[in-house]
Amino acid sequence: MRQFARLKRDVDSWRELRQRTRDLVELLDLEDQSLEAELESEVESLEAEIERRETHALLSGEYDNSNAILAIHAGAGGTDSQDWAAMLQRMYLRWAENHDYDTQILDLSEGEEAGIKSVTISLEGDYVYGYLKAEKGVHRLVRLSPFDSASRRHTSFALVEVLPEVEAEEDIDINPNDLRIDTYRSAGAGGQNVQKNETAIRITHIPTGVVVTCQNERSQTQNKENAMKVLKARLLELKEAQQAEELAEIKGDHVKAEWGSQIRSYVLHPYQMVKDHRTDVERGNTQAVLDGDLDLFIESYLRSTIGEGA
């Protein structure tokens, strides 16, 4: 039913675009000078819509039309990096809100002084994974630290992971005997019920050692369902990584199992600039980017991967 609803929206949007184009042609045929401003505005609007659809057409990967699971982890750097992770969380939540995606925080580990150590967020909507996969990697922040009494410049790092939500059971088959499930009291906000009862869930997949946690729901059952959702996504990522390594071994390529260098730098001092190191796209309006205006970076990355199979 979700696939049917998605396809219906696609067909309806194309029909709407076709009708808008026909209406514009009819207005142009009138050659009415008083409509010039209105026509220019509609042409610009159609051009922007067509460009958006061209980018959308790049999302042809197996899981591009799936929901996504986004995880952010503070890197080395203590409070500054934890604060940076919280800034990234806000940035992606704003981006999702701007695109009418539904979000749910599944697990959150707060920092000791400020910010967060890590957060796991579920995002639901059409092609959300296809777009967000452009954000995988290390994000670097350069600024005057608000936590340094001497106001010195600090560099902070955070890792962003993006996983597709697994919908088909045949994609990932999990043997219940391979799971160790622990319950514990939530450490986060949520009221007396969360604090009193062992509603938080930790699931360990014994064969791989993958561990996932979920503690943000009042219900232990709901936390378990969300944790299983994250576990399936992580096992799918592991499966695809193993396949990529096997392929690379056949090709003779070397695959590095490490974070790698940062994909994007956000410089707030001594100048203002956000630069994507994969595409060399830059923006001087850092506040707009941190408020969720990421489409330029995402679309540029998707266009750069044409023919690479990324």
Task: Provide the β-strand percentage band.
Answer: 15-25%
Label the CATH architecture of the largest domain.
2-Layer Sandwich
Which word captures the global form?
globular
Based on helices, strands and strand pairing, what is the structural class? alpha+beta
Q: What is the level 1 CATH name of the largest domain?
A: Alpha Beta
The Cα radius of gyration reads: 22 Å
Give the strand order of the largest sheet, numbering strands 1, 2, ... along the chain: 2-3-1-5-4-9-10-11
Sheet of most strands: 8 strands, mixed
- Low-confidence stretches at least 5 residues in length (pLDDT < 50)? 190-194, 251-258
Q: Within the CATH hierarchy, at the fold level, what is the topology of the largest domain?
A: Alpha-Beta Plaits
> Would you tell me the overall average pLDDT?
86
Count of helical regions? 8
How would you explain this protein's 3D organization?
Helix 1 (2-30) packs antiparallel against helix 2 (36-56). It is globular and about 70 Å long. The protein is 41% helix and 23% strand. It is an alpha+beta fold and 310 residues long. The chain starts with a helix and ends in a 6-residue tail after the last helix. It contains eight helices and eleven strands. The protein has an eight-stranded mixed sheet, sandwiched between helices. The protein folds into three domains: 2-56; 68-165 and 263-304, Alpha-Beta Plaits; 176-251, 2-Layer Sandwich (Double Stranded RNA Binding Domain), CATH 3.30.160.20. It has helices spanning 2-30, 36-56, 79-98, 128-132, 192-196, 220-251, 286-290, 295-304, and strands at residues 68-74, 102-110, 116-124, 137-144, 153-164, 179-184, 200-205, 210-214, 264-267, 273-276, 282-283. The model is unreliable at 190-194 and 251-258 (pLDDT under 50).
